[in-house]
Write a structure and sequence with these properties.
This protein is of the alpha+beta class. The protein has 5 helices and 3 strands.
């Protein structure tokens, strides 16, 4: 199941929101779909995007309600990102 399909199941407006996001945000969402949860640095490594671009993509995805974050239990300085479950 693709990130678009995952969002489509949740709500039609989420699909429209995802379509309007930049390509970097779509790539980050797709990587999270396959990896369940990753830190920002892991996402940068997986996507081959600069950390600043990943941070911008995550901010846009969180604002759209597509991605959720929580603090890492092993390192409180880091956040773990996952696709939002609805």
């Amino acid at each position: 199941m693709s990130a678009t399909e995952t969002v489509r199941e949740n709500a039609p407006e989420d699909l429209e929101t995802l379509r309007e996001l930049p390509p970097s945000a779509k790539l980050v969402a797709k990587v999270l779909e396959y990896n369940n949860s990753l830190t920002q640095s892991q996402l940068a490594e997986e996507t081959l995007l600069p950390p600043r671009t990943v941070r911008y993509a995550l901010t846009r995805l969180e604002d759209a309600g597509i991605v959720e974050s929580r603090f890492s239990f092993s390192d409180a300085r880091k956040r773990i990102y996952t696709l939002a479950a609805e």
